Amino acid sequence: MNQALFDREPVLAVCGWSGSGKTTVLERVIPIFVDRGLRVAVVKHDGHGINIDKEGKDSARFFAAGADIHLRGPSEQVWRSHNRIEDTLERSISRLLCTHDLILIEGHKDTPLPKIWCHSEGGEAVPEGVSGVITTLPWDGDRVPALLSIAEGRLNAACADRVLFGGVLIGGDSRRMGSPKQNLSVGGRSLLSTVTSIFRSKVERVVVLGRGHTPEDAGRLPQISDAPGTGQGPLAGLLTAFRWAPRVCWVVGACDMPGITAEALVWLIDQRRPGCWAVIPRDSEGQIHPTLALYEPQAASLIDTLVDQGHKAPRGLVRWSEIHTPTIPDSLAHAWLNVNSPEDLAAFCKRPN
Prior knowledge:
alpha/beta
């Protein structure tokens, strides 16, 4: 495993000899994070073999026959699969990061991961060759505060360090406007140029999401059209963005929002925190605005679910508790205005600066 692969991710291994209290401290810490609304996954190393099924049960017989098993119950589900060459620990952790906020690993002391070492009652030293140890937890005393502090630090750092990309949506029908909105001019500049110039000041990279001609004054920008199987409308643009760059945070805006300001993007980005998978603001009347919003990598799994259900708009995301919908400050509300018709555009151009 690449030593640096998960250095900037919320991944933490809790290691120690058998009987050192690894399971006990994890069992006490996990409910604290769950109560905060975070999704937590645990990867456990078991060198003695796995025993999770009863011999003679249908599922055990299917597994013995060579099939992988997915068990679904009213309140839980279990995947049981045979080990294959491609089933590496890196791949397992990467998959879990797509749908969880924090990955805790019990064991794997010889794997290059960030670690906490739990001392046994004898207080032995960390074995030679065990790398990545952030701190050690003594046998005596309350270990929970130390583990909480380090895990919280990794959560906060992963959120703060995540790369920000900007995605500008184009390619709508523009039926009311009569022509592609990205090409329309406001103050001598195309709408696309106006929006992308603001985005460039706050994100590492700006990408045009959708089909259509891009005006020359917007500069040379990467442009990705909706990928097959991503649905239609804004959801297709979002899902395509995550397939193009899955581990970044996407700040998304529409090309028909000429009032976007750097201050509005700063406010939006400042709403980020661990456990928040998207920031979809709502206005003073309670209407949500998903086309000037922010989407963390975990939101991709929820977007995929909406696409499978036939949705086109991201509004359906708000049913998940991980989606935050803060109220837009009155002083920034103009940034969320859309121009959908020539009348809207004329009214915007008449607004005082």
